[in-house]
Every structure is written in structure tokens, then in C-alpha cells.
Amino acid sequence: MADKFDVIVIGAGPGGYVAAIRAAQLGLKTACVEKWVNKEGKTVHGGTCLNVGCIPSKSLLETSHKFVEARDEYGDLGINVSDVSMDIEKMMARKDKVVSQLTGGISGLFKANGVTSIEGTGRLLKDRKVEVTGHDGESQTYEAENVVIATGSVPVDIPPAPMTEDLIVDSSGALEFQEVPKRLGVIGAGVIGLELGSVWRRLGSEVTMLEALDTFLPVVDEQISKETYKQLTKQGLNIRLGARVTGSEVRDNEVVVKYTDSDGEQEQTFDKLIVCVGRRPYTENLLGDGTGVELDERGFIQVDDVCQTKAPGVYAIGDVVRGPMLAHKGSEEGVMVADIIHGEKAEMNYEAIPSVIYTAPEVAWVGRSEQQAKKDGFDVKTGVFPFSASGRAMANNATEGMVKVVTDASTDRVLGVHIIGQHAGELIAEAVIAMEFGSSAEDLALTCFAHPTLSEAVHEAALAVDGHAIHMANRKKKR
Which residues of the sequence carry a binding annotation for FAD (predicted)? Predict the structure, then answer.
């Protein structure tokens, strides 16, 4: 038996590495197990998020957006440019450099905080023992007082479109294209599909998105989702709702996709096909016999409100448990669990977890949509303010979108905030803080916001709940 630890974390993604660092900061002897190996054969930390998810996709999104701005919008600002072109190889190299810097940064944080890094594949055995199989196939068993499972998730495969090298790919493969496909198909018009479709549409692809659902972005407030659909289709994304893929075939280095929609059976040919139909928890070969850890019918590890499994001293966090599959959700769960192990009283407010779609304009929300609030029995009042009435948005040449505040009419408590617009992913933090402190719309309305800023739209939307927005025609004139 190898060394015994106070805490062993299985997985070094945004949930796992944060949990490990926090536990070590609290004085607990901590180890973190990670199997991810990069292109150079070196074990790296950061999980899906840093290696093939959040970070590389945002690098490509930002680069492609700047390209479109320079090509199509700078002229409106009086900036004359010509012959704007995109160097795909350089864009990819920069993306890889950003990933390398950040994954290396986590390794440095482990050393600085005294976290023991264990390379290999972790497997939980009974009595909180962790078996780690190294890249050489040799196994070693470690013992811990507490184990935190943070193994994350992987893309869902679908039988009608099995992966093929470089032609039919998942979200990870879509980050590695070395040239712009002329015809790009995307199965799934959710968050990941929209972001990846946006990248390659900006760079010149003809993008067709096949979404099986009849409703676009059903998790988003209906008013915001309609505006999002309008903005993205205007940019050239061909989003086909109610399109269920039934099969695919590779012919002459092309992909022929068969699907059904309201018009019957359809067929379309693409140069590349991305499958983005969701993610599933990664629990493959994770649990040995007698661990006491239970999975639900969808493969998620069953945990309570503070992420403890039914096995004493064993916790699970992030994508492998219930709740939204969001990196920041996993990170905060990691902090909570480390604090609890240390003996602190800690909890998470799952009502105030923000979500962001990093298209342009960005889409962000926290809390309930208007439809969900009504379904939950609230008497709802809303306030909406368009960025077209924002001085800063006009100056930025970014007047698309709006801010929407959803409140409980009887208490004025903010139930949710929904934004589509430039920097929505940054603006939503104001709403998260407001909801964390149980704010009312009046609290936001009485807060002084800097001028001129995009954040003033949040202020005006809160004022609009009672019909008192200053920079928009109002329905009510008196308090």
C-alpha cells in the first residue's frame, strides 16, 4: 500500500483541480489523479474544459469574431482595411499555446500548494482505496480518508453518425480542423453546436444545423431564444428544427446525412460533420465492487445536496453528478466539498448558477425563465430593456439584443435575469450577485451604474419592471 492521504481527488478538470487545491490550502494531505495525455505524450491537467472544451473553443470564437469585425464592420467605424484574410494554421497554433499555458499553470499551482500529482487512471475500490493504473500498465493502490470523484463527462455518440477520422467528429475534433470546410453539418443546435457552428461560419463554411427538437434552445427564456435564433440565422447559420438524423454514410471523402423533418425524408451532403448532441457522465471502469457508490438510470453518480455519495467519505462533483454540466458549477462544488471535509459548514446556491453561450452576440442567463417561473406558480412581472437604446452599445456598434429581468410580482424578488448582447457573459455576473443576496428589482433600480456602460441596460431593465425605465418609452408614469 502506498502513502495514505487525507483527500484523493480522481480527475483534474475544473472541479477536481480546484477541489484538490482548496483541500491542500486547508492543510489536508491531498493527491489528484489524472490520466489525460496531450499530443506530446505528457500528462496534463485541466480536463475537457482546458484541453478540448471551454478554453480552446473560446480562443477560436474570439479569433473568428475579430476576423469578421475587421472584414465586415471596421468600415462602419471609419477604419479602412482591405484584403482581410484568415491564417487557420496560425489561429490553431495560438489556440494550442493558450491551452498549454493554462494546463501548465495548473501543474504549477499543484506544486505551489503541495498537491501530489498522480499520473494514470483512477478507480475507486471499497473502503476509500484508489487504484491507479499508470500509462505503463502498472497499478498502485492508495488509501484516503476522503475521496472526491471528479471524472467529468464525454460527448454522446449516436448510432446514425458514428465517428470517423476527420470527417464525422465530435466537439473535440471540430477544434482541430486544419482548413475551412466548404459545407459543414452540425447535429445538435445546443450550446456547443451553436458555438462551433459560429466559428466555422465566420470563417466561410456553409453551416447547416440539424436539431431534433422542434423548439430552439428550450432551456433559455422564450423571448431571448427567439431573438437568438433571429440573430444567428441572420449571420448565415441554417438552423433546421425538428430534423432527426436517421443515418450517415461516407462517400468519396464526403458525408451524406439522412434525416427526417416535417417535409419527410431528406438527404444532404457535407464535407465535415460535427456531432454535438450532448454529453454523458464518465464513469467507465470507475467503480470497483463494494464501494457503496450508486449510479442513477442515466449513469450519474447519486449524491445529496452537498455532493456526498451514499458511501461515507466519498464525494462526487461536476459533470458526473446532477445539475448543469458547467465548469464553474464543478469548481464551486469542489470548493464546497473541500470545506466540508475540513469540517466547515458549506453549501451551494444552485438557483444562482449562470449559463453562457459564447456566440456573437453572447447569450447569458441565471435563475428562472419567465416560462419556468410561471410553471413554478409565481405571479410574474418582467422588465425588458433593448441594447438599441443603450448609448454605450451604440458607440460600440453592438446594439443587438436586450436584458430581461424576471421577478415575483408579490415580493419584487428577482427570479431570473436573461441577456443577449455584447459581453452578456460578463454582465450576467451582476445578476448572479444580486440573486445570491436575494435582491429585489427595486434594489437593482436604486443602484448607481457607471455611464456609459453596457451594464446600464441591467439597471434599466430593473426599472422597467415597474414601467420606470428612463431611456425607453414607459407604460407607467407614476409610482
Answer: 58, 122, 151-153, 319, 325-328
